[in-house]
């Protein structure tokens, strides 16, 4: 990808054609179905959510009841869709998948709800992006398994109550804080998905490699895991690119060297930063001495839109402790200098730089 060309933001926060973007691209969607764990036992990591969910589902099964509504929050690609499918499988129930943006009118939701079977799991991705009328209809549906369908308009409009079969709503959101409290309160269980530790990602990679029939050494998996930004979707995507490289340039076996060489070719560095991330840091360090610098200035210097820098590059740089957002602008942390192999100005002869900011 050429970062000099204007880029279009998709899905509001991520570019889908970025190798380290955490939203699903077309190829991911095709391959992900084959790589999804089918039950809680196969689901790697997220110990707390898994354990709590296991109890909720076992108890519901023992009572012969439909499971309580479940809210899953966390960044894209951490396994929310996968978990919703596992919930349906563990309950022996069918699953219907839709998303907040797809439900713009209350009528859209009424149509879905009224066609659910008893016990069915309704997965509502990006639940925070549903329209307000649909959201209000959902309150009653979740609590009383009933909706009021409005027929007609104006003074002659009448509400016809419609009974619904008991169902389990699994809502997924990247922004739990954006959910109105009345909606949040109607979930019986909320699971917060964390980023994965490198060891957990290694297990995801080994499992996927086996399913894709790829030979990978432990150190190769560790190399990919370290560059996967704590996200299984990215780990699986990098694995596929490294597999291509190993097939063409080596004997098909993924070793630490092959993985590192391949990911260098794809410009994903040892810590998972890609070209855009590094461009932001390089400009911040080399042109502005580590900051503080305003977002707009930084974006112009990188040759990118403000939103691209703010929503695509910054969240990961902040999470990695390489960049900080301050009221005075963006500043690089000492770790950023080290990562790019540069010397902070206060360590250079006669430099001043960030001494006051980081006290080092
Ligand atoms: N815990 C896990 N163990 C193994 N594989 C996982 C795990 N979590 C996610 N994956 C894999 O990562 C990919 C993305 O997962 P999934 O689609 O469930 O993420 P998501 O959180 O729903 O993302 P989005 O919010 O973008 O829809 C899938 O291929 C899935 O197999």
TrEMBL record:
Give the Enzyme Commission number: 3.6.4.-
Q: Which Gene3D superfamilies match?
A: 1.10.8.60, P-loop containing nucleotide triphosphate hydrolases, Winged helix-like DNA-binding domain superfamily/Winged helix DNA-binding domain
Question: Transmembrane helix among the record's keywords?
Answer: no
Protein residues bound to Mg(2+): 81
Instruction: List positions binding DNA.
Output: 306, 325, 330
For the ligand (ATP), the binding residues are 35-36, 77, 80-82, 143-145, 186, 196, 233
Q: Which GO terms describe its cellular component?
A: cytoplasm; Holliday junction resolvase complex
Any matching Pfam family: RuvB_N
Q: Where in this protein does the record put region Small ATPAse domain (RuvB-S)? A: 197-267
Q: Name the Gene Ontology biological process terms.
A: DNA recombination; DNA repair
Region: Head domain (RuvB-H); residue ranges are 270-360
Example of a GO MF term: ATP binding
Q: Which reaction does it catalyse?
A: ATP + H2O = ADP + phosphate + H(+)
Q: Which residues form the AAA+ ATPase domain?
A: 66-199
Where is region (Large ATPase domain (RuvB-L)) located? Answer: 16-196
Domain of life assignment:
Bacteria
This protein's assembly is summarised as:
Homohexamer. Forms an RuvA(8)-RuvB(12)-Holliday junction (HJ) complex. HJ DNA is sandwiched between 2 RuvA tetramers; dsDNA enters through RuvA and exits via RuvB. An RuvB hexamer assembles on each DNA strand where it exits the tetramer. Each RuvB hexamer is contacted by two RuvA subunits (via domain III) on 2 adjacent RuvB subunits; this complex drives branch migration. In the full resolvosome a probable DNA-RuvA(4)-RuvB(12)-RuvC(2) complex forms which resolves the HJ.
Explain the purpose of this protein: The RuvA-RuvB-RuvC complex processes Holliday junction (HJ) DNA during genetic recombination and DNA repair, while the RuvA-RuvB complex plays an important role in the rescue of blocked DNA replication forks via replication fork reversal (RFR). RuvA specifically binds to HJ cruciform DNA, conferring on it an open structure. The RuvB hexamer acts as an ATP-dependent pump, pulling dsDNA into and through the RuvAB complex. RuvB forms 2 homohexamers on either side of HJ DNA bound by 1 or 2 RuvA tetramers; 4 subunits per hexamer contact DNA at a time.
Notes concerning its domains: Has 3 domains, the large (RuvB-L) and small ATPase (RuvB-S) domains and the C-terminal head (RuvB-H) domain. The head domain binds DNA, while the ATPase domains jointly bind ATP, ADP or are empty depending on the state of the subunit in the translocation cycle. During a single DNA translocation step the structure of each domain remains the same, but their relative positions change.
Q: What is this protein called?
A: Holliday junction branch migration complex subunit RuvB
Give the source species.
Streptomyces rimosus subsp. rimosus (strain ATCC 10970 / DSM 40260 / JCM 4667 / NRRL 2234)
């Amino acid at each position: 990808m050429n970062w000099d060309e204007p880029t279009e933001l998709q899905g509001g926060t991520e570019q889908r054609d970025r190798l380290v973007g955490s939203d699903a691209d077309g190829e991911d969607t095709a391959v992900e179905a084959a790589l999804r764990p089918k039950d809680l036992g196969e689901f790697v990591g997220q110990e707390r959510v898994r354990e709590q969910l296991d109890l909720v589902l076992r108890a519901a099964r023992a009572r012969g009841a439909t499971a309580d509504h479940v809210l899953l929050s966390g960044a894209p690609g951490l396994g929310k869709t996968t978990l919703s499918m596992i919930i349906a499988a563990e309950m022996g129930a069918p699953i219907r998948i839709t998303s907040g943006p797809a439900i713009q009118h209350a009528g859209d939701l009424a149509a879905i709800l009224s066609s659910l079977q008893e016990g069915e799991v309704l997965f509502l991705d990006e639940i925070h992006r549903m329209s307000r009328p649909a959201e209000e209809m959902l309150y009653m549906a979740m609590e009383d398994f009933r909706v009021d369908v409005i027929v007609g308009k104006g003074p002659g409009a009448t509400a016809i109550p419609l009974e619904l079969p008991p169902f389990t709503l699994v809502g997924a959101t990247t922004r739990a804080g954006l959910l109105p409290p009345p909606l949040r309160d109607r979930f019986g269980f909320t699971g917060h998905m964390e980023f994965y530790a490198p060891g957990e990602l290694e297990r995801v990679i080994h499992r996927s490699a086996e399913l894709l029939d790829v030979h990978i050494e432990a150190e190769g998996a560790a190399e990919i895991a370290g560059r996967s930004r704590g996200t299984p979707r990215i780990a699986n995507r990098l694995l596929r690119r490294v597999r291509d490289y190993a097939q063409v340039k080596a004997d098909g076996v993924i070793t630490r060297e092959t993985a590192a060489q391949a990911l260098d070719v794809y410009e994903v560095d040892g810590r998972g930063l890609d070209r855009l991330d590094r461009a932001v840091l390089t400009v911040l360090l080399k042109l502005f001495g580590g900051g503080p610098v305003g977002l707009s200035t930084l974006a112009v210097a990188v040759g990118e839109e403000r939103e691209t820098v703010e929503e695509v590059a910054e969240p990961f740089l902040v999470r990695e402790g390489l960049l900080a957002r301050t009221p005075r602008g963006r500043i690089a942390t000492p770790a950023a200098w080290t990562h790019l192999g540069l010397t902070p100005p206060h360590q250079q002869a006669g430099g001043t730089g960030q001494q006051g900011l980081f006290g080092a």
